[in-house]
Amino acid sequence: PNVKGPNYAWLDPSRLYCHPQGLQDCVADLLQPFQGDPIDMVAGIDAMGFILGAAAAATLRKGFLAIRKAGHLCVQTLEQPYSDYSGREKLMEVRTDAISPGLRILLVDQWVETGGTMRAAIQLVEQLGGVVAGVAAICIEDSEGGRWIQERYKCAHCVPPRLQPRFNRHQ
């Protein structure tokens, strides 16, 4: 449970990463829908998407690209504004030399709540000519942004359909 107040995410699934079999099962569940799909690289979204994204990249034997909050990279970058789950306006960046036209990218984050962060990552990949091969997260909530993503891209998440309403209402 959230013990720090309303400015923090309502649920923290990071304890899952401490359990070896749990982490392996989560990554396997996230990658299952993409078996046989052409994926050239996995991109994880700052910061918790780095964990699942790197694990997915290692499992697929693909490279890993970090999509960062702006100001953390010392190379040439492309920036994209977005609003996070708390409604704060932020900038996301990606190095411009990592994505070539036609490169198929699997985007991974821990959680898609409002969809703003994932949508910014999608825009960065597509502006550089990359192709979003799919979107994977522990949970993709049934929000306006979550639906926008699921209507346009192949998606994977770990929440069973019978439990999805509880996650959507933050129970």
How does the SSE layout of this entry go?
Blueprint: H1 20-31, E1 41-45, H2 49-60, E2 63-69, E3 77-83, E4 89-95, E5 104-112, H3 116-127, E6 131-140, H4 144-152, E7 155-156, H5 164-168
Parallel strand pairs: 1-2, 1-5, 5-6, 6-7
Antiparallel strand pairs: 2-4, 3-4
Offer a few descriptive terms.
alpha/beta, 171 residues, Rossmann fold, globular, seven-stranded mixed β-sheet
Sequence of secondary-structure elements? HEHEEEEHEHEH
Rg over C-alpha atoms, rounded to the nearest angstrom: 15 Å
Query: Which structural class is indicated by helix and strand composition?
Result: alpha/beta
Shape: globular
- Could you say what the CATH topology is called? Rossmann fold
Describe this structure in words.
The chain has five helices and seven strands. By secondary structure, it is an alpha/beta fold. It has a seven-stranded mixed beta sheet with strand order 3-4-2-1-5-6-7, with helices on both faces. The termini are close together.
Q: What is the structure about, briefly put?
A:
By secondary structure, the chain is α/β, with parallel strands linked by helices. The protein has helices spanning 20-31, 49-60, 116-127, 144-152, 164-168; strands spanning 41-45, 63-69, 77-83, 89-95, 104-112, 131-140, 155-156.
